[in-house]
Design goal:
alpha+beta, 6 helices, single chain, about 190 residues, Alpha-Beta Plaits, four-stranded antiparallel sheet, globular
């Protein structure tokens, strides 16, 4: 799933793209039009439009904390990445809470903290979020890789584990902590 800041892809831009895709006679199938629009939105997000509040470490830390809070409870996080203006999450639902409620609780909690940090009021997030059901092991592997590679693709780092605000770096830190605990060394 992906959710983004309200100013990362302005509504008038998306409306213009919807008109474009509706007029494009090469895109005959609904899924083709949908994929075209999603691709445009992804590229626009990765270009870093908007205020990019999630690029501030203290706000990215709020997002990380919100995602990790119920990991192992309402859901199991498989991969995640906080980009400067949007967030990618791959999860397996464990509890019975509807996905919209989970995302809504993240957005509410993060907004309170971010608005306090930024000295502002009002909505932070775009209303919608984008989710997709994972349909095969291949699709799972593709999505996992897409999420972890997103900061590399956007030019924010050279390797996924170098991006502090993602599951790749989290795994490296967790593995290092486990390794230090095994032999008593702190490396």
């Amino acid at each position: 799933m992906t959710f983004r800041l309200a100013d990362s892809v302005p509504a008038h831009v998306v409306a213009r793209w919807r008109e474009e895709v509706a007029r494009d006679r090469r895109l005959t199938q609904a899924w083709e039009r949908h994929r075209w629009l999603e691709d445009r939105i992804r590229r626009f997000e990765d270009a870093g439009h908007g205020a990019c509040h999630l690029g501030r470490p203290e706000i990215a830390a709020l997002v990380r904390e919100a995602l990790l809070h119920s990991d192992g409870g309402r859901y199991q996080l498989l991969a995640w990445c906080v980009m400067p203006n949007h967030v990618h999450v791959l999860l397996r639902q464990v509890g019975h809470a509807p996905l919209g409620r989970v995302v809504g609780s993240w957005k509410t909690w993060i907004t309170r903290g971010a608005n306090r940090i930024l000295g502002r009021r009002g909505p932070l997030w775009a209303r919608e979020y984008y989710d997709r059901e994972i349909r095969s092991p291949r699709h799972l592997a593709f999505t996992f890789n897409y999420i972890e590679q997103n900061p590399v693709k956007a030019g924010l780092c050279r390797r996924p584990e170098d991006w502090r605000w993602g599951s790749a770096a989290e795994k490296v830190a967790r593995d290092a902590a486990r390794g230090a605990g095994r032999d008593g060394c702190r490396g």
